[in-house]
Specification:
The protein is an alpha+beta fold and 402 residues long. The chain folds into three domains: 80 residues, Beta Barrel (Thrombin, subunit H); 109 residues, Trypsin-like serine proteases (Thrombin, subunit H), CATH 2.40.10.10; 94 residues, Pdz3 Domain (Roll), CATH 2.30.42. It contains seven helices and 22 strands. The strands form four sheets. It has a six-stranded antiparallel beta barrel with strand order 1-2-3-6-5-4. Strands 8-9-10-13-12-11 form a six-stranded antiparallel beta barrel. β4 and β5 form a beta hairpin.
Length: 402
């Protein structure tokens, strides 16, 4: 064998050994770009790239973000951590008879809505609290008081006791303009990790209390998102790409991942003035029990389609009874608003105002009729217990630990 051939074989063996040594640790390798592909600068090491939507033919869709960092920088000073000292009483502890009392620390999130220190959060974050404290983005802590709370919608209005401190309220968006597939960012305090940001999309809109199993089934229209929501995110904002609050994070599916829910900010807007003025919400009342219109009801009830709210029962002496609404009526319009689904009517009727005279359009016997109803005050009723004993959606649980 010639010396030149021996040298070539030796070089080949050395190169093979070098490759084996380099590849002994598995690694991820980029797929080579086509030869005619334009060169792209690598993403900054200080700011990882965010996935963007891609349109057919390549390139990001118009309006797709390349980073959420500007949104976070604009909003984070408006988001606060909420700490609630909750008094718990045990009937027996460590072998001693009689009630034993201890203080538990609940943690959640809120966001500023006014420069005077007003904060929106969930009612279940502060319910039963003996003392409330909030922490700003810069670490400063201040005591807070409850201005008002609404157990049914699960919102609470707080006010920081921070005179002279410059505060930045969040901008509120229009949740009625949301579409499935819109970007959504959640900011909060999961497991005590303040100012955590997660991103996802609006997975669905108009989720009902019946679907979510949130105890009180009187209001629908919840926003579903796959942005990661965990214990401690309760009361935090759900944001759009303009940095506006579109929802208040309120619930998660306890057996799923990426199934979270938020109260539309437009619903919260309605109750905030009453929480500020009265400390609670004074709801109007129609006085009917309703259900959905099923497809198999359309023909025999002589309806054009399955839209509307089916009146199942009318309470005696209620505004509905005085206006001669009856079981079997299908309400299609309330006070000028379309009622395409039965879950819409309770919110429309309860937020119209006590003493308000509403026009109600409905089908009866295949004919369209209209009556005028003067709404009364909603009677006080005991809250429905949350279904903790079965799978389903529940309010975001508090983080474990002291």
């Amino acid at each position: 064998m010639s010396p030149a051939r021996l040298v070539a074989i030796a070089a080949l063996v050395a190169a093979t050994a070098a490759c084996r040594t380099r590849d002994s640790v598995p690694s991820l390798r980029a797929i080579p770009a086509p030869a005619d592909a334009p060169s792209v600068a690598p993403p900054s090491s200080e700011r990882p790239a965010v996935p963007v939507a891609v349109q057919p033919g390549g390139g990001p869709l118009p309006g797709s973000p390349t980073s959420f960092a500007p949104i976070v920088r604009a909003v984070r000073s408006s988001v606060v951590s909420v700490f609630a000292a909750i008094r718990e009483v045990n009937s027996m502890q460590w072998g001693f008879n009689g009630p034993q009392e201890r203080m538990a620390l609940g943690r959640g999130t809120g966001f500023l809505i006014a420069s005077n220190g007003e904060i929106l959060t969930n009612n279940h974050v502060i319910q039963g609290a003996a003392f409330i404290e909030v922490q700003l983005d810069d670490g400063r802590r201040f005591a807070a008081e409850v201005l008002g709370r609404d157990e049914r919608l699960d919102v609470a209005l707080l006010r920081m006791k921070a005179p002279g401190v410059q505060l930045t309220p969040a901008r509120l968006g229009d949740s009625d303009r949301l579409s499935v597939g819109d970007w959504a960012l959640a900011m909060g305090n999961p497991y005590g990790l303040a100012q955590t940001v997660t991103a996802g999309i609006v997975s669905a809109i108009g989720r009902t209390g019946r679907e979510v199993h949130l105890g009180d089934d009187s209001f629908g229209n919840l926003i579903q998102t796959d942005a990661s929501i965990n214990p401690g995110n309760s009361g935090g904002p759900l944001l759009n790409l303009a940095g506006e609050v579109i929802g208040i994070n309120v619930a998660v599916h306890r057996e799923a991942q990426g199934v979270g829910f938020a109260i539309p900010i437009n619903m919260a807007r309605v109750v905030v003035p009453q929480l500020r003025q009265y400390g609670h919400v004074m709801r109007s009342w129609l006085g009917v029990s309703i259900g959905p219109v099923r497809d198999n009801m359309v023909d025999w009830m002589h309806l054009p389609d399955a839209r509307g709210a089916l009146v199942q029962d009318v309470e005696p002496n209620s505004p509905a009874a005085q206006a001669d609404l009856r079981a079997g009526d299908v309400i299609r319009h309330f006070d000028g608003q379309d009622v395409s689904d039965s879950t819409q009517l309770p919110w429309l009727a309860s937020s119209a105002g006590i003493g308000h005279r509403a026009q109600v359009e409905f089908y009866r016997g295949g004919r369209v009729q209209t009556v005028s109803v003067t709404l009364g005050a909603m009677p006080d009723r005991q809250s429905i217990a949350l279904p903790q004993d079965r799978p389903g959606m529940v309010p975001i649980p508090p983080p474990s630990g002291p």
